[in-house]
Automatic annotation (TrEMBL):
<dbReference type="InterPro" id="IPR023198">
    <property type="entry name" value="PGP-like_dom2"/>
</dbReference>
<dbReference type="GO" id="GO:0016791">
    <property type="term" value="F:phosphatase activity"/>
</dbReference>
<dbReference type="InterPro" id="IPR036412">
    <property type="entry name" value="HAD-like_sf"/>
</dbReference>
<dbReference type="Pfam" id="PF13419">
    <property type="entry name" value="HAD_2"/>
</dbReference>
<protein>
    <submittedName>
        <fullName>Uncharacterized protein</fullName>
    </submittedName>
</protein>
<dbReference type="InterPro" id="IPR041492">
    <property type="entry name" value="HAD_2"/>
</dbReference>
<dbReference type="InterPro" id="IPR023214">
    <property type="entry name" value="HAD_sf"/>
</dbReference>
C-alpha cells in the first residue's frame, strides 16, 4: 500500500461534486434554447462547465445564434434557475456499491477487490475499468463480458441507472438509495479539523438557491469563493484563479507550494 501524505486543506468544487446541479443546469438551459428551436448539445455543455455566468451566456448565444443579448439571456435563465435550483440534492456514495459489485464478480474467480484496487480505475470508462480489473486480477474472461456482468448488477442494485456520454455508469441521484457520500466526506474532514472550502463558478444568488436545503452543511465551509460574484477572481474556470483566491483566504493558509492548478 502506498504511503499517503497528510491532508492539510481541501477545496471543493460545488456543481457536480457536492451537489447534483449539472442535471438542473441542463434542464434549465435546454428549456430556454428550445424556445428558439435550438438544442443544447453535450459538446456545448462541456465547454460551459465552470465558466462565469456572463461568459457562459455569451458562448451559448453565439454558438446557437440565439436572438438575445447577454443581459436578456441571463434574465430568462435566472427565472428558470430560481424554479429548479432549490431542488438540488447532495451527491450520493456510489463507491461502496461499485466495490460490492466487483467483489461479487471476482469471487467467482477466487479473487477479491479492495478499495485500493478500485482507486486504480476511478474515472475510467466502463470498458477500461473492465480491462484493467481483468488484467490486475488475472480474470480468465473477456473484458467486454465482464463489463456486461457489471452493468447487469448495477441495474439490479440501483433503482435507476444512467449512462453518461463518457460511457461511465453512474447512479441516478434522484432515485438512488445510497448514503449521501458528499456529506459524509465533508463531515469527516470537519470532524478531524481539516479546513474545507468551496471554490465555485456560481454567483451568490445561484449559490443561495442551490443550497436552500443544505444551509447547515454549508456553514462548515470557510471560505466560500464564488467566481461569478467575486471581483478578485479575474478569470473563470478552467483558469485556476478561483482556487488560488480560495486558498489565499483560508484563515490558516496552506503553503504556496501545495496550491496547484486543478487539472
Amino acid at each position: 500500500m502506498p504511503a499517503y501524505k497528510p491532508v492539510t486543506h481541501v477545496i471543493f468544487d460545488m456543481d457536480g461534486l457536492l451537489l447534483d446541479t449539472e442535471r438542473l443546469y441542463t434542464v434549465a438551459i435546454s428549456e430556454l434554447t428550445e424556445e428558439y428551436g435550438k438544442a443544447y448539445p453535450w459538446e456545448l455543455k462541456v465547454q460551459c462547465m465552470g465558466m462565469k455566468g456572463d461568459a457562459s451566456a455569451k458562448l451559448i448565444i453565439d454558438s446557437l445564434e440565439l436572438p438575445l443579448t447577454v443581459p436578456e439571456y441571463l434574465e430568462k435563465i435566472d427565472l428558470k434557475y430560481k424554479e429548479l435550483f432549490p431542488q438540488a440534492v447532495l451527491l450520493p456514495d456510489t463507491v461502496g456499491p461499485h466495490l460490492a459489485i466487483h467483489q461479487s464478480l471476482l469471487a467467482e474467480y477466487g479473487q477479491t477487490c479492495t478499495w485500493y484496487d478500485l482507486i486504480q480505475v476511478m474515472g475510467h470508462t466502463a470498458l477500461e475499468t473492465a480491462q484493467e480489473i481483468c488484467r490486475l486480477k488475472s480474470v480468465p474472461v473477456d473484458p467486454e463480458i465482464y463489463q456486461d456482468k457489471v452493468a447487469a448488477l448495477q441495474f439490479s442494485m440501483f433503482p435507476k441507472i444512467g449512462l453518461m456520454r463518457a460511457h461511465i455508469l453512474i447512479c441516478d441521484i434522484t432515485l438512488a438509495c445510497c448514503a449521501t457520500g458528499a456529506e459524509r466526506l465533508v463531515r469527516h474532514l470537519h470532524k478531524h479539523g481539516v479546513p474545507i472550502a468551496i471554490a465555485s463558478g456560481s454567483s451568490q444568488t445561484s449559490f443561495d438557491l442551490k443550497t436552500t436545503s443544505h444551509r447547515e452543511l454549508m456553514k462548515l465551509f470557510n471560505p466560500v469563493v464564488l467566481s461569478s460574484s467575486d471581483p478578485e477572481v479575474k478569470a473563470g474556470k478552467p483558469a485556476p484563479d478561483v482556487f488560488l483566491v480560495c486558498a489565499g483566504r483560508f484563515p490558516d493558509k496552506p503553503h504556496s507550494s501545495k496550491v496547484r492548478k486543478k487539472v
